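Before relying on records like the one below, remember that each one covers exactly one chain. Contacts with other chains, cofactors or solvent are not represented anywhere in the record.
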Amino acid sequence: MASGIARGRLAEERKSWRKNHPHGWRPAITVKQILVGIQDLLDTPNPADPAQTDGYHLFIQDAVEYKKRVKLQYKQYPPIV
């Protein structure tokens, strides 16, 4: 439920940017909202529009293995803090 809310907020902001600002940008969305939106997209990929077909097929066929590989990637390439 929360993931849909985050995605909806990002979509609303984008529409607002285009409608109200000729250059298509304004600082109305917070960094936290952007990060929550990215996290949501990573947690719940859109199966109707996969960016990477291999990952998409694994996600659809074996969600447990998909999550295991995502965690492995995270460990191999930790965020720089």
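DSSP finds four helices and no strands in the chain.
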